[in-house]
Design brief:
Mean pLDDT: 80
Radius of gyration: 27 Å
Number of strands: 0
Strand content: under 5%
Order of helices and strands: HHHHHHHHHHH
CATH superfamily of the largest domain: ABC transporter type 1, transmembrane domain
Low-confidence stretches: 1-7
Largest sheet: none
Structural class: mainly alpha
CATH architecture of the largest domain: Up-down Bundle
CATH class of the largest domain: Mainly Alpha
CATH topology of the largest domain: ABC transporter transmembrane region fold
Length: 261
Amino acid sequence: MLSQSNLQSGEKGSVRFVLPLFLAHWRKILLALLAMVLDAGLAVMRPWPLKVVIDRVLSHKPSRVPLIHQWLDSAPFTRTQILYGSCAAVLLIALVTGLTTYCYTRLLGNVGQRFVFELRRDLFAHMQRLSLRFHDTQKTGDLTSRLTSDIQSIQDFIGSGVIAFASNTLLLSGMAALMFWLNWRFALATLSIAPLMFWIVYRNKRLIKRATRKARVSTGLLASLAQETLASIRIVQGLAQEDQIDERFQAQSESSLQAFL
């Protein structure tokens, strides 16, 4: 079993190996980040046209829409003009939101595809140059799983996890800033639960990493068993070992299932 220091050194080595591949695409990542910031700002602005309609058209009172309330209250707009303008603002926000979402999704998807291509290429080249002693102690199916399913998981994380995390973080930051601008007391009361949530996440981080590592190892063992069996299928059939191999494969599959549950 790996010690904590070995795990930490392995993680640092992985970061040093992966970081240059990410930095090679910094322009696209920066553009995607700018698009996410714009998208988060538009998401915060989405309820404002409806607020204008409720305040100015239905309630006949001054609007408290941030940034534009003074101009809106002093301008000689009729209720019909305000209603049409609010509808146009809703359509404009939806259109620009769709464009920004498409932009950062396309950019990060492109980065993810190219990153996975380069990572798989470099990892395969690295595996070929490792010592024979290393290959004697490693299962071929496990190494194959690293090149296929593990790297595919990285691509899925970049394509969905990174986008969701970054966009939600920016959206929550924008909403928190707006809440403090409108009513800082209410904002503090609302965000008072945040430290407890961060503490729970930090406390369970090690357990989640351990469970993920166990599931990955179990998947590698399953792939190794399948690869070794199919590679020696003539021997398996010649010795009539199909039933025994079936039992081993089912047991390993159940172990892999339990690791993911």
